[in-house]
Amino acid sequence: RDAGEWARQTVIARDEPIEPDDFIVLIGQERLPYNLSDGRKQFMRCYVVKSPGKEGEFSVFWHGPHTIMDGRPTINAFSLMFEWLAQTTLEPLDVLHWGTEWKNLPVGPVTATGGPRANWETDGVALLIQAEALGRNLESTHGLTCQRQEVVTPGKVTRLRVELSEEDSAQLLGKCKASGFTATHLFEAATALATFTCNPVPEDNNVHIAFPNIISLTKFQVPPHNKKTHFISSLNVAPMKISYRDIPISATPQDRLLAAMQKFKDQYASYMENVHLPHLFAMQMFLTPPRVIKTGPNACPMIPTNLGIIEHSVAVTYYPDGDHDQLPVLDVLKIAFGHRLTEPIP
Fold this sequence. Notes:
Blueprint: H1 2-8, E1 11-14, H2 20-28, E2 34-35, E3 41-42, E4 45-50, E5 58-63, H3 71-85, H4 109-112, H5 120-135, H6 166-178, H7 183-198, E6 208-216, E7 235-243, H8 253-272, H9 280-287, E8 317-318, E9 330-331
Parallel strand pairs: 1-4
Antiparallel strand pairs: 2-3, 4-5, 6-7, 8-9
């Protein structure tokens, strides 16, 4: 009975249709945790919503904190959910022993990536110092300017969606690869250049832009932890910096972009050369746990992120029990993320 009541308050089916982006704006203003009928607090909830005017089209939303919903593991969890939905025979709920969830908690990031490395006292500490030095640039980073100083609707998420065609995407990625770069290098360089363009600086002003760059731990995980069911502690935060003077002012737009991409590529390479990289964020949290809410260093920070090729984790079409000879059960049309910034800003 407890499990059934928990499920009814965890999976919410809305009768009123609403556009996915509108629902993200709506749910982004809900503060966690939810308060359940028995007084307990709930930190994650699932919503099933109808799309207006589209028969048979639904959206599934998970609302929870980033602490338990890293990008790549969340995508993997959606993939598992779709696989279960496509099964013709489901396991009975009574195989789930209610109240024993704590026995199935995943291991932490150090264990999941193969355990401690040798020479942490030298190479690992050097990595901490490198990240700390670059992290100090976040406090004085150049950013966008606000159109107004007052917050009208706290927590409101505004989404600007730009979708490239399959042909344009292939062309961009092909040219990146041919030049020795990745899509991540492109996104971060483009974000920096766009910020300098939208909020220009004098040519003699050596301002900089710093990002708390996200590096996934998925590629570092070892058996038996390198599977879709490992949901937590799957990212590193590695600060990086690019100065206005790093980008040749008189160069062509393409050369400016390539110069910015090279700057980020070099910093990624420096991080990746250190075998202790998978344990950087875990050690930072151990040494300076974020127990007190602090005001962020910048009112308009830019945080680009690249989730990679979604289709490598979530299929476009799901068939009954994976049998492609049968009619499909469901098609996945789009995926969207909405983040509410909870860190106080100046």
